Amino acid sequence: MSLHQYRRKRRLGTAADGTPEPDDQPAQGDPDRRPGFVVQLHHASSRHYDFRLEMDGVLKSWAVPKGPSLRAGEKRLAVEVEDHPLSYATFEGDIPHGHYGAGHVDVFDHGTWASEGDPLPALAAGKLDFVLHGERLSGGWKLVRTALKGRQPQWLLIKRDDAQARDAEADDLLRDPPAEAGGGSTRPSAAKGRPAGRATRTRKADSRWRKRALLLDGARAAPYPHQFAPQLTDHRDTAPEGAGWLHEIKWDGYRLLADLDDGQVKLRSRNGLDWSDDFPEVARAVAALPVSDARLDGELVVLHADGRSDFAALQRVIDGSSSQPLRYVVFDLPGVAGVDISRAPLLARKTLLKALLGSKPGTLAYSDHVIDHGPAVFSASGEAGFEGIISKQRDAAYVNVRARSWVKVKHEDTDEFLIVGHTPPKGSRQGFGSLLMAVQDKGGLRYVGRVGTGFDDAQLHALGSQLETLAVKQPVLELPAHVPFRASSVHWVEPVLVAEVAFRGLGKEGLLRQASFRRLRVDKMDGRVLSPKEKGGSAVSNAVTITHPERVVYPGRKIRKGDVADYYRAMARWILPEIAGRPLSLLRCPRGVGQACFFQKHHGQGLGDAVRSVPLKQKSGTEDYVFVDDVQGLLQLVQMNTLELHPWGATVQDPEHPDRLVFDLDPGEGVTWVQVKAAARDIRARLQEVGLQSFVRLSGGKGLHVVVPLQPKAGWDQAKAFCEAFAQALAQHAPDRYVATMSKARRTGVIFIDWLRNARGATSVCSWSLRARDSAGVAVPLRWEELGRIAAADAFPLDKALARARRLKRDPWEGIATLKQVLPLDL
């Protein structure tokens, strides 16, 4: 079904006789959050519950006459109805008499939901297993399509047998208030804020907690600062002894700081990134605490049943491929109820924190500890499979720097190193043999050894593909004379990937001993990797001076030139494979978005010494075109106020034979985002019919790009002819959906398939490039199975694009560089 049926059944609009229900325009959802659900109680001619799951940019909907049952295995009829727009998730009110569905509508429950993998194929197959995170409904459920005949498809909604199952049904829950503590979650767009009664209770609770906090030694009657910096750990080889220390598990996840201020929550990473929208269930759990003001420090993790945290599982949850619950394990409370308790003894802070979190299981969890017996605790943690412990002085204050009052003790040394190259695989091994690692010293990169173990087959394949895109011909550093292999046998790569490596100390030559790969640190790609001796210092990267970093470039979002430089520096590992060694057209905006911008494709003075030129023959003669090869060149373009990067579909080594084709889907007026996504899938299918695999990218503006990699064999004339014939064939086959001409007069209500970008000298914006638009949208590459969850072409502004890149375990376009396909000469 589609929103066409929703529109057909209703008189939408602002007319006096129209329905108050939301219109059918696609909502500008947040692609980084998990999809939402809503259950509405509908007092229509026949009272029923409407059960809606966000999927493919709409709310897939079922009418459940008796409402959901929480009894394990009990089946409830669910009649499939038309898709609803996402904005319907917050609709409450009266649908007037004489309108379709006339009657009163209340929101019964809302929150987020997840399934293992892509839900669309499961839905099409007639069996969808999923997990709800709501205020009244939670746990596992399934929808099963029946063979019953009816005017509309009929399903069964069944509660799974889990900890949330109980002897109750929806009508029973109407008598109970929604849950207020940490197990539920809801998407921010559907949140209604705290009820008046809850606000009154919170004010009373604030007074009680304030009195308790002020009793602590060192407490001050002033709020602890917002945006506080975290306390960082020192390192020891052995656990400290004595009753003056307490010992906690070292959790393997992401450090997370929470500011609760007047009931509003902001979540931040250790480096200050705003993660509030990334983890809405955590934000909701913090907001549900019995105070309106608090500062929390902890770790975001996924826990096994035995209590161990699993970093790989956490990454799967974050990238949307797992429905395991997140846990925010909190270990410190520097401020609460308007009182600064950072100077109070740690043990007193933790005692107050434990009472604040309560004992009810949920998204928030307390990080427990053991006092004294450090060596025994450390030994037991190793036997239980933990990475190590954090030992803390029980009377220490909370400070915003690295301090010896907190020490990290690990069962093996781990550190981050730059990958500078790899050796060839041997025997049956695929991908690569071992990785060459380096650190940044004062004199440049210094080799520290190899790591050849710790990889599974999937990692060998995925990392091998990434390394191929970063290959460089010249050695990145000088190898010591004592290494047991020759520099000529090394495959060198641009030093931008950071790997976490476990090792057993350093050998006499200063090289890693018994090194084993742990993981790529995609959250640490934007700074240089320091040598162990430099770990206390600040990190800097890519010595390009950015002048006037305070200049506002995106006024609507208050994004400055320095922010743009930071973005491109952090994203260099993703952008360089798209642009390195290709002629470029640059969109430069010296005065920012909204002011005069201009395209530049020719090389000129002032661009920087790392911005290179290549002479290319044109009708007017030979002209020097711009290209870059490295991070320094990229940042020099940013220094010259470049916002958008548009590469050729060919390289400077072979400019006459394209290796990329791009079909740009440009929607005309009246075309919905759902229609644009359907068009991209249609083009993908048609390309597959002629033997071509394709990849999809958000334009960052209004449309989508379908990208086809090729072996560079056909010339530009052949490529252009193929693309024109392909687009014309689509337009002739479906003239109500597509047009293949630039004439704006013919584009209302249809999608222009722009094939003209596949001519010599024409360009398309590259993946991960910013767009010079008020929204600061980014042209983000997607996996095809992700497309259904994306709500708009500019769904990833600068901060969201950074967050997405941080979560990626592998390239969404993995394999594009190695796919061997050629242009078919005949359609």
From TrEMBL:
Keywords in UniProt for this one?
Answer: ATP-binding, DNA damage, DNA recombination, DNA repair, DNA-binding, DNA-directed DNA polymerase, Exonuclease, Hydrolase, Ligase, Manganese, Metal-binding, Multifunctional enzyme, Nuclease, Nucleotide-binding, Nucleotidyltransferase, Transferase
Q: Which PANTHER family match?
A: BIFUNCTIONAL NON-HOMOLOGOUS END JOINING PROTEIN LIGD (PTHR42705)
Q: Does the keyword Metal-binding apply?
A: yes
EC id: 6.5.1.1
GO biological process terms, alphabetically, are: DNA recombination; DNA repair
One Pfam family from the record: LigD_N
Q: Where is the DNA ligase D polymerase domain?
A: 561-813
Q: Extract the ranges annotated as region (Disordered).
A: 1-36, 167-208
Q: Where is the DNA ligase D 3'-phosphoesterase domain?
A: 40-145
- Tell me where in this chain the ATP-dependent DNA ligase family profile domain is found: 242-410
Highest taxon of source: Bacteria
For activity, the cofactor(s) needed are: Mn(2+)
Per the record, where are the segments of Basic residues compositional bias? Answer: 1-12
According to the UniProt entry, its GO molecular function terms are: ATP binding; DNA binding; DNA ligase (ATP) activity; DNA-directed DNA polymerase activity; exonuclease activity; metal ion binding
Record protein name field: DNA ligase (ATP)
Write out the catalysed reaction. Answer: ATP + (deoxyribonucleotide)n-3'-hydroxyl + 5'-phospho-(deoxyribonucleotide)m = (deoxyribonucleotide)n+m + AMP + diphosphate
Question: Where would I find the DNA ligase ATP-dependent C-terminal domain in this sequence?
Answer: 429-524
NCBIfam families referenced in this protein's UniProt entry, alphabetically: LigD_PE_dom, ligD_pol, NHEJ_ligase_lig, NHEJ_ligase_prk
Compositional bias ranges of the Basic and acidic residues kind? 167-178
